[in-house]
Amino acid sequence: MFILPFALLTLTFFILPAIATVWMSFTDLDVKMKPNFIGLENYIRIFQDYSLGEILQNTIVYAVASLGFVLLLSLIIAISTQYFMKGKTVATGYRVLWLIPSLFPSVVFAIFWKYIFDPTENGFLNKIGMHLGAVDEPVSWITRYAMPIVILGTVVGSVSSNVILLSSSINSIPEDLYKAARVDGAGEKSIILKIILPTLRWPLMYITITTLIGFVSSYFFIMLLTDGGPMHDSTTLALYSYQQAFQLKYYGYGAAISMFVVVIALALTLVLLRLFDFDALVQPSRIEE
User: Fold this and answer.
1) Residue 32: how many other CB atoms lie within 10 Å
2) What are the backbone dihedrals phi and psi of residue 37, each rounded to the nearest 5 degrees, phi first?
3) 141 CB contacts (<8 Å, ≥6 apart)?
4) What three-state secondary structure class fits 37?
5) Does residue 247 contact residue 257 with C-beta atoms inside 8 Å?
């Protein structure tokens, strides 16, 4: 009885919509709202879609590049502020500074990036470039560099929560381990590689899996910033699913694409669990006598 309200909420807002999505993917549901069962036609249509190759490539580039930069930047910030500057006010302030982008609503965050890369002379980057003489006329940055800009914005907005988790894990390492390592002649590089990084294996696995799944299935920031353009240059599978369902009103086809995204996310999760050797991580500790 205690968990019944939460179970009902989960059933209503997660399980039932998931079941409905699977059902819709096998229908021709469109703006007429009269679904007819068509079997695997939507899934066959996906592989016949001439845009699929480019969109799938965009999804891979976006997810992998964003994940790589997020992990690298999160590790650098966490180790720098929690190990090298532990306890200092400037370290806390720096971590808080990275937390600011995640506090803004996605719409405000997207508007901020639109202002920076605005193609007119009033855009921040164009204004600075023209003032310094680096460019003679306004540059349409988003048109030329849509995907790099989307990746940059995603990385900046995704680092903060990972830094907090990694910093907490580093903070849990006993100081005695550092002292013992230094007594044995270990340098800072050895301490980071032999003590800190192995300790971060669990949080790194969690961050890698959840962040990668989030990037594969996210579309809102891309939709607000570029709407997948120009053409399909910054369109990902998740955004393409949204466009097909809610812009073109092909709900059945959009649902099928979303199921394709789910399959990719599940496959990536299984691969990452294998790479991180999840079975070994969950084994009970053994104390050798």
Assistant:
1) 9
2) -70, 125
3) 117, 119, 123, 125, 126, 149
4) strand
5) no
What is the tens place of the pLDDT at every residue in 102-160?
Answer: 788 889 999 999 999 999 999 999 999 999 988 889 999 999 999 999 999 999 999 98
Question: Integer distance in angstroms from the first to the last C-alpha of the chain?
Answer: 46
Tokens 């079941």 -> residue: 19
Domains of the chain: 59-278 (1.10.3720.10)
Q: ω before 284 within 30° of 0 (cis)?
A: no
Q: Which two tokens stand for residue 53?
A: 């190759």
> What number of other Cβ atoms are within 10 A of residue 252's Cβ?
23
**Cα separation, 282 vs 289, whole angstroms:** 21
Tokens of 85: 């500057």
- pLDDT above 80: residue 64: yes
Rounded Cα distance between 57 and 200, Å, is: 31
Which residue from 63, 111, 20 is spatially nearest to 238, judged by alpha carbons?
63
pLDDT per residue as tens digits for the range 204-247: 999 999 999 999 998 999 999 999 999 899 999 999 999 999 99
Cα–Cα distance for residue pair 117/123, rounded to 1 Å: 6
Helix, coil or strand: residue 27: strand
Q: Which H/E stretch holds residue 41?
A: helix 41-48
CA atoms within 13 A on the CB side of 31: 5
How is residue 35 written in tokens? 């679904």
Q: How high is the mean pLDDT of the chain? A: 91
The helix (H) or strand (E) run that includes residue 232 is: none
